[in-house]
Specification:
By secondary structure, the protein is an alpha/beta fold. It has a domain at 296-521: Nucleotidyltransferase, domain 5 (2-Layer Sandwich). The strands form 5 sheets. Strands 1, 2, 3, 4, 5, 6, 7, 8, 9, 13 and 14 form an 11-stranded mixed sheet that branches. It has an 8-stranded mixed sheet with strand order 22-23-19-18-15-16-17-24, with helices on both faces. Strand 20 and strand 21 (415-419) form a beta hairpin. Helix 13 packs across helix 15 (507-521). Residues 290-296, 527-533 and 535-540 have low confidence and may be disordered.
Length: 540
């Protein structure tokens, strides 16, 4: 707040944890600007719909409850406030015309990590007309080297430091100094007892080892007794930046952070690093560092991220499907992907994950509102067991095939045509004494190479509409790009393209191939008419 009123400062960058009063603080700055030093103001959020909700639920009530601001308010709409001495706009980062059209003195950029590509550079030019303009960039970070991380590093990098209540040593407030006991009391039989663990949680001074306990009074004293220290004092005077983590807000229990960390670490050991990335970004306020150096494999997939997050309702959704890949290495387990389809071939990733039993699979499908008739499972491993499961549940078995295509007959023209998929029938009792006595199951076969070629067209944006949430995990992206297409020539010089695996795990890719096949079967992909259930396929 002090730096916001300093005309020697033109940019304030804040990289911090989620739910730590950052937005409320910036709203207070906006109130100060309107009442004390007016000039055209703009608040930019990631999405237009999000901006409307923000105005209704938070910004509007804040302006109305601040006396000097409310007195100068002449009129307000969903995205614009008119004050006696200045306008104040609230826009989404996905609206280029609104980002470019107006000169702005007070520019507030909220959750920059979620802006579409190029939006930040566009909006930063709006302040050039004012010598005393101020830009505030505030966000939880995403990845190392992204816009938020660059903005923080360009400033003087002020990091919150605490003072030890015993030895008065000044030190940065860092996660590494938060300690807890690991023994038979806190982790009996290898399972964490978080209620007992709570008593051992403490922050240890890095100088004298004094233990600060996880109580409201001690957390509040720690926060009030600290201050910011510039770690890059030679930065340009007009650029200041701040960083803090979730240990600082005194209302956040350290127990909740420890529990989040331990659960994220357990998930990472099972191959799912997305909870750990969320913890690093939103609790530690740190950018995610890709220490394995494999980000380049799926860098292009980042462009398929949409302006939505997991759990958000999609009004245009027509139906959803679930694809499952069964694995046996390390014990029986299953990978699954749920994807929704909308009009015009649009499709969004709803959720993905891993579970350990068929019972869990059924529960997940029910929880995600996927009807059994829209659930598919790969039958390439232990086919008979998969067929029996499908007969019991109504799910559909699938199988990838090395064939480049299948010949199928169009019932309307009675002519054969090439297709990437085919529907046959299998006996779920094959290999048992009950063979031939029960109802046959539909088996959906598809060309593995051909379906991967088609999916690649969507992944690279050749065909629009295929997207993943903004907060999709690195584990999903890595598995989706686990294979790449390689040009091969035979002895006669004929060229063919084959897919080769470059990473061991490609299970989410296999799940997405099944869902892509469903898109063809139901004509949700590549057709104007839409079906909503795999039981009513339409031939394309």
């Amino acid at each position: 707040m002090e730096e916001f009123a300093n005309n020697h400062v033109s940019e304030i960058a804040i990289q911090c944890s989620a739910q730590s009063s950052k937005t409320q603080t910036i709203m207070a700055l906006a109130c100060w600007a309107i009442a004390e030093d007016p000039g055209p103001g703009m608040w930019v959020m990631a999405a237009k719909d999000e901006a409307k909700q923000f105005v209704r639920d938070r910004l509007g009530p804040t302006f109305e409850s601040c006396g000097p601001v409310a007195e100068s308010l002449l009129a307000s709409e969903s995205s614009e406030f008119q004050f006696t001495s200045m306008p104040f706009y609230v826009v989404g980062a996905g609206s280029p015309s609104k980002l470019q059209s107006k000169p702005i003195r007070w520019l507030f950029l909220d959750e920059v990590r979620n802006y579409p590509p190029g939006a930040l550079d566009t909006v930063l030019k709006r302040t050039r007309a004012f010598w005393n303009a101020r830009t505030v960039i505030i966000s939880t970070p995403d990845r190392e080297g992204d816009a938020v991380d660059r903005a923080f590093k360009a400033g003087d990098q002020r990091v919150f430091h605490i003072t030890c209540p015993k030895c008065t040593a000044l030190q940065p407030l860092v996660w590494e100094q938060l300690k807890w006991d690991t023994n038979e009391t806190t982790r009996p039989a290898g399972q964490w007892d978080f209620d007992r663990l709570t008593a051992s949680i403490r922050y240890e001074c890095n100088a004298c080892g004094h233990a600060i306990r996880d109580t409201p009074a001690e957390r509040q004293a720690l926060a009030r007794g600290g201050r910011y220290v510039a770690m890059n004092p030679h930065a340009p005077r007009h650029r200041v930046s701040f960083k803090w983590n979730a240990l600082l807000p005194w209302w956040v229990r350290w127990r909740s952070l420890v529990e989040e960390f331990l659960r994220a670490r357990a998930a990472a050991k099972n191959g799912d690093v997305s909870p750990m990335k969320t913890f690093v970004n939103e609790s530690l306020g740190e950018p995610w560092r890709d220490e394995l150096g494999e980000i380049e494999d799926f860098e292009f997939l980042l462009e398929r991220r949409g302006e939505y997050r997991f759990g958000e309702t999609w009004p245009d959704e027509l139906c959803r499907f679930m694809g499952v890949d069964r694995q046996a290495k390390g014990g029986e387990h299953y990978y699954y992907v749920v994807r929704a389809f909308g009009p015009g071939g649009q499709t969004r990733l709803v959720t993905y994950g891993r579970c350990n039993s068929q019972i869990e699979l059924e529960a997940i499908a029910q929880h995600q509102n996927v009807p059994a008739s829209n659930c598919l499972i790969d039958s390439g491993f232990k086919a008979s067991d998969v067929y029996r499961f499908c007969r019991k549940t109504g799910w559909k078995p699938t199988k990838g095939d090395a064939a480049d295509f299948f010949l199928r007959r169009d019932p309307r023209t009675n002519k054969n045509f090439r297709s990437l998929w085919d529907k046959t029938r299998v006996d779920p009792a094959a290999g048992t004494a009950m063979v031939g006595r029960g109802k046959l199951l539909p088996l959906y076969r598809f060309s593995s190479n051909g379906m991967k070629d088609l999916l690649l067209e969507y992944l690279t944006g050749t065909f629009p509409g295929w997207s993943v949430p903004r907060d999709v995990g690195r584990d999903y992206l890595k598995q989706l790009s686990a294979e790449h297409r390689v040009e091969e020539r035979d002895v006669r010089g004929h060229v063919r393209y084959r897919w080769h695996q470059r990473h061991e795990d490609n299970h989410y890719l296999d799940c997405e191939l099944q869902v892509m096949m469903v898109g063809l079967v139901t004509r949700l992909v590549g057709a104007t008419r839409n079906a909503s259930c795999l039981d009513r396929p339409r031939y394309s």
